[in-house]
Amino acid sequence: MSSFAPFVTTETSPLQHVIVHTPGREVELVPPDSRLDLLFDDILFVEQAREEHDLMCAVFNKIVGKPDAVLQITTLLAEAFALEDARLEYVAQACSMARITNLQAFESELQRLSPDELLRFALTGETPLPIRVPPLPNLMFTRDLAATVHDHMVISYAATAARQREGVVIKTILHHHPAFHALRDRIIELPPGVTFEGGDLLVASPEVVLIGLSERTSFGGVMAVAEALFSRTPVEHVIMVDVPKKRSYMHLDTVFTFSSPTECVVFPPLFVGDVPGNVFHLRRGDEPGRFVCETRPYLKQTLEELLGRTLTFIPCGGNDILSQHREQWTDGANFFCIAPGVVIGYERNRRTFDIMREHGYRVVAADSFLEFYSESDFAHGTEKVAIKLAGTELSRGRGGPRCMTLPIARLA
C-alpha cells in the first residue's frame, strides 16, 4: 500500500493526490421533508450525480497521470476499519458527538458490528440495531473535512449538526489508515467551541494563507487555525476575509478561487470596486498566541503586496450584475485548479466560461478533453485550459468542483 505525505504550498501547483467521495446510498436516504436539515436544497438523482462525479475523477486521473491520484473516502475508511482500534475509536467518538440520537446506549453493540456493517453505519446511518441516525449526504464535499497546509492537515469542526459526524470519519482515516502513518504528528485539531470548515481556507503561497470568516467558520476558528499555522508551519501571513453570513456565500471558496498563480475568479460585488473593508491582515506577534492585526481596504491590493506580483480578478458571471449573482449561486466562482492555469468548473456557468475564454483560456468539455487525450498524456504549461464539467445533478447539492476535492499533495 502506498503512503501519502501531505504537502500543499499553493492552490495552483500541479495536483498529486486528492480525496473525494462519489455520492452513493447516503444521498438516496435524504428525505424530502427534512432535506433542509441535511443542508440539501433539493433531491439529487444519484445515478446521474455519480456519472458526473466519475467524469470529474477521470479528468483528475488523466491530468495527474498517476494510478493513485484519486483517493475515495469509502475505500480509505473501509481499509481503516480493518483495524479494531480504528473501529473502537470511531464508535467512541461518534457516540460522544451524537448525543441527540442517544447512541451511547448502543455503544457496545456498535463496537461489535463487522467492519462492513460499521462502514455502512458511518456513511448512511443504517444498522441492524434499533437506532435511527441521519445519513451523511454532504460527505461528497470533502473539501470541508480538512485543509492541507505545507505538511500539516487541519481537521475541520463543522458548524452544523448535520456535518459533525464527518469529522469523525476523516479523523479515523488520518489517525488509523496505514498510508497516513507518517502524518500522525502533523495533524492539527482545533480547541472545543470553535468552528472551521476547509472551504474557508486557501493557500495563496508558502507564506500566505487566506481564511474566510463565514457562515461556517467562526472568529475563534480563524484565530485557532492562524495560531496553529504560525507556530507549526512556515506561514507568515493570514488574510482573514469577512464573508457575508449567507448560505449562498457559505465559504470563501464560493466567492473566490485561484485559477493560476496570477489569476483569481471572484464574485465582483464582494471584491471589485468600492467595496467596504472586509479584509484583515494577521501576522505573528512577539509572544505565542498573539497576533498583529490590521484592517486592509481591498483584498486584491493586499494579496499583490504580500505575494509580490500583479493579480487579475476574473469576474464570475462576466460583467453583467444579474449574471454574476445567478452564476455565483450555481458555484461559478468555485473552480478547482488541477495545475497552473488548468481548472474545472460547472458548464452551466456559461458567462463565466465566456470571460475565461477572453482571458486566454481554451474552454473544453470534460468528455471532449478526455477523448482528445485518450491516446496521449496531458502536459500542463503549454496553454491555459478551463474544463466544463456537466454538473446538472451535482450542482443541486450546492457545491462546486473545489468543494468536492480535498487535495493532500501538490508538487512544490
Summarize the entry for a quick read.
The protein contains 13 helices and 18 strands. With 412 residues, it is an alpha/beta fold.
Name its key features.
single chain; globular; alpha/beta; L-arginine/glycine Amidinotransferase, Chain A; 20% strand; 412 residues
Please tell me about this protein's structure.
The chain has helices spanning 25-28, 46-64, 73-80, 84-97, 107-111, 115-124, 164-176, 219-232, 268-271, 299-307, 321-329, 350-358, 366-372, and strands spanning 15-20, 70-72, 146-149, 152-155, 187-188, 201-203, 208-213, 237-242, 256-260, 263-266, 279-284, 291-296, 312-315, 336-339, 342-346, 361-365, 384-389, 406-410. With 412 residues, the protein is α/β, with parallel strands linked by helices. It has a single domain (15-410), classed as 5-stranded Propeller (L-arginine/glycine Amidinotransferase, Chain A). A five-stranded mixed sheet has the order 6-7-8-11-12, sandwiched between helices. A four-stranded mixed sheet has the order 14-15-17-16, with helices on both faces. α8 links the parallel β7 (208-213) and β8 (237-242). α2 packs across α13 and α4 (84-97) runs antiparallel to α7 (164-176). The longest helix is centred in the first third of the chain and has 19 residues, at 46-64. The two termini are 23 Å apart. The mean pLDDT is 92.
